[in-house]
Specification:
Rossmann fold, 11 strands, 2 domains, six-stranded parallel sheet, alpha/beta, 32% helix, homodimer, five-stranded parallel sheet
């Protein structure tokens, strides 16, 4: 079932920008699909799109309210229910990437049924997965991995897709999370798959392809994140990447959601990722480091990139400042 | 809902002994709960219990038919349906550790409803899990890890529980798979949890405890198994083990179900397990190697254990030949 566009992005009471990463991802990569954002009191996030209410969004042609907030575990706070039911009543469909199914929230299901609206659960694929087989597949694969969650893995894969296509290369972004699925209009939310089938789902996402075709696979979590490392590793083995790109946010002081866990050293992170990835692709190598320098000045960003590039002997860049060509030059 | 004992163990047409590992696990550790085994033509497995039909099992007091076969992905072959429905009709409840829910198989659900029997899905916990938090917990934890699937992780944890209890130590086996849950009558099938919640489920399984209490956590899969490494890693991070015991089957020629993947070198396997486990417990160490020597003669087993013990500088033993005391001596 296709999710009808354009979208009104729902930010709820997201406490900070990272909590609204589904909304900002769509706004950054598919702004032409969005009429604006809907925020509740206390919201600390901003996509940069204009604030509109449901009535105005409808006048602008909106068809679907997209829940653009993620939280640990992907649950739906009660504080959102009234605003969401109101949007359904006024005429919008609803799309969500939360773990819980929309139809399992009685008020929301009732409003959808009463007003004849569609509910889209992005984390619940109709696809039936099996266990991974670990067989080598044709075509080339690049997986973005991270020092942490929410540090640029999706943006990096999308930027590499853009740069490869600009060079006339065959390249497809492979979405593994709800935001990526909304942007690519295909993929699977790998963290919502039954644990036994993680790598099988990743194999399904990136099947045999032309020898010169690149699948640019959106990584999830981090091998250094105590909550999500299992998902990261299962995805890695299903992806069987030829290349890794390590994504990093240099101002983060601890792992996202885990104040007692420090951000790993970049060299340690590269070593552990390669050590694990060699299981399904002994020829895997680290292409470079993609740094989210949005919190740094131009000068500080340039200094930081030069410093870690010298230390790691790898190309290090910010794909949002000038694109991913600096990585492709080292293919 | 309690699963009523005693059991009739259903082996179906399991092609080999390993495929019937749920049945053999129950027969080996809880023989007093079993009245016999039920096998279909072509079955290549044998628990050592006597073959009985449903009528005889009922005369022996059987209350529940336990599906004792696992297959990759945990699906139910059509060839089993008639025998299972017949058992329900004659008076047995049914318990299964397959991924699919019993009530979703129309013929089985219909027979259960018609005859008033209970269906138990061991892989589907009523428990709602959340993401792992990575917080240090009180008490001590030992996790069994493997060079491969089905190589002795459950038996090793159970043997260590037995040896610790014999010494008067506080120790509990923590089941993470359907067979373990049947043996322990508690636990959770970790491979059936939503991927995002693997480590959270493992944290739930092994909560805070007395400082001198050991949770002996049944490992799953292997960090070297392309299909299941994500589950193994998520379980490891939720377990936060103080000690690892590496389990190994020395006559295996390739990874279970993956003929194109060799069994890893023991030293490499120890190194990668420790490298990953240090994330959530920097003090983790490898206690020893538990070798399933059932395919070797006494002399060959002794030679093999002496050889790898010298090479790895670790205690190496077969817990099914003399118990786990040789590990406890190195605590």
């Amino acid at each position: 079932m296709t999710i009808e566009k354009p979208y009104l992005l729902f930010l709820g009471d997201a406490p900070d920008q990272l909590a609204a990463k589904t909304a900002t991802g769509i706004a950054d990569w598919r702004p032409e699909w969005c009429v604006g954002q809907l925020r509740l009191p206390g919201c600390g996030a901003d996509t940069g799109l204009k604030d509109v209410d449901v009535a105005e969004a409808l006048r602008l042609g909106a068809k679907t309210l997209v829940i653009g907030v993620v939280n640990s575990g992907g649950f739906m706070p009660d504080t959102w229910t009234d605003a969401i039911c109101d949007a359904l009543a006024q005429g919008l469909d609803l799309a969500s990437g939360l773990h819980g199914r929309l139809q399992d929230f009685p008020a929301i299901n009732e409003a959808a049924v009463k007003h004849g609206r569609n509910l889209h659960d992005l984390r619940h694929s109709e696809q039936e997965f099996t266990t991974g087989k670990g067989q080598k597949r044709t075509g080339k694969r690049l997986l973005t991995v991270g020092t942490d969650c929410s540090c640029g893995k999706k943006y990096t894969a999308l930027a590499i897709e853009k740069a490869m296509r600009a060079r006339g290369m065959k390249a497809d972004f492979c979405a593994t999370g709800q935001t990526g699925v909304l942007i690519a209009e295909r993929g699977a939310a790998i963290d919502a798959v039954i644990a036994d089938f993680i790598s099988g789902a990743a194999e399904w996402l990136s099947p045999d392809n032309d020898a010169d075709h690149w699948d640019l696979i959106e990584g999830q979590g981090s091998l250094f994140h105590a909550s999500y490392a299992g998902v990261s590793l299962g995805l890695m083995h299903g992806a069987q990447p030829d290349l890794l790109v390590l994504c990093h946010e240099p101002t983060r002081t601890h792992m996202r959601g885990l104040p007692h866990y420090p951000i790993p050293d970049l060299a340690d992170c590269i070593a552990l990722n390669l050590a694990n990835a060699r299981l399904t692709n002994p020829a895997v190598r680290m292409l470079g480091v993609s740094v989210n320098t949005s919190a740094l000045s131009d000068a500080a960003a340039a200094d930081y990139l030069a410093e870690i590039s010298a230390k790691l002997s790898l190309p290090c860049l910010d794909v949002m400042r000038g694109g991913a060509d600096g990585l492709l030059d080292h293919l």
